[in-house]
Amino acid sequence: MKLTAKTDMEVPAAFLFASLVDHATWEREAVRNGAEVERPPGSPATGPGAEWRIRGHFRGKPRKVLLKIAEMVENQLVVLSLDGPSIEGSARFEVMVLSPRRSRLRVDVEFKPKTLAARLFINTMRLAKGRVQAKFETRLGQMGARIKDRYERSQVQA
Questions:
Q1: What is the mean pLDDT of residues 65-94?
Q2: Pair 73, 21: CB distance under 8 Å
């Protein structure tokens, strides 16, 4: 299953990209949302090859996933690979410059099932794709608003 969404922000592209690769902030946010985040030993701090083991509950069951930066182009692109016991996939975050103070974030997420249960779940999501897509776009908009808020706070402090 593939989901795609984009959002425009009143934030310079360099700040947007820096926010995307600010791993400490994303780790704290995941922990606040109830996930356990672990950095495997020997994993680079950032860039291709950086990894996180994430454990949490989703739909009432404990889930595990290995998140890894597969590709990164400075100020333009971050590609994450996701690998879990029942599902695998990728997430592509692309930053585009619209003007010096405006940028666009495009996110493509693709999931592939590894088990029968995951296949049934993804097929159920396909049946409700309109609602799933709308929720995905809403979440991306919320993420964009948080990034814009961080940018505005950083400008006040400067």
A1: 94
A2: no
In this structure, what token pair is assigned to residue 57? 């509950």
DSSP track, 76-130 = TEEEEEEE-SSEEEEEEEEEEEEETTEEEEEEEEEEEESSHHHHHHHHHHHHTHH
Return the CATH number of 2-152, one of 3.30.530.20, 3.40.440.10, 3.90.1150.10, 1.10.1740.10.
3.30.530.20
CA–CA distance from 75 to each of 2, 59, 104, 105, 120 (Å)? 24, 35, 12, 11, 37
Domain ranges of the chain: 2-152
What digits encode the pLDDT tens for the residues 90-146? 999 999 999 999 999 999 999 999 999 899 989 998 999 999 999 999 999 999 999
Asked whether the predicted pLDDT for residue 158 surpasses 70, the reply is no
Strand order in the sheet with 61-73: 2-9, 102-113, 87-99, 77-83, 61-73, 51-58, 36-38
Residue range 110-122, pLDDT digits in tens: 999 999 989 998 9
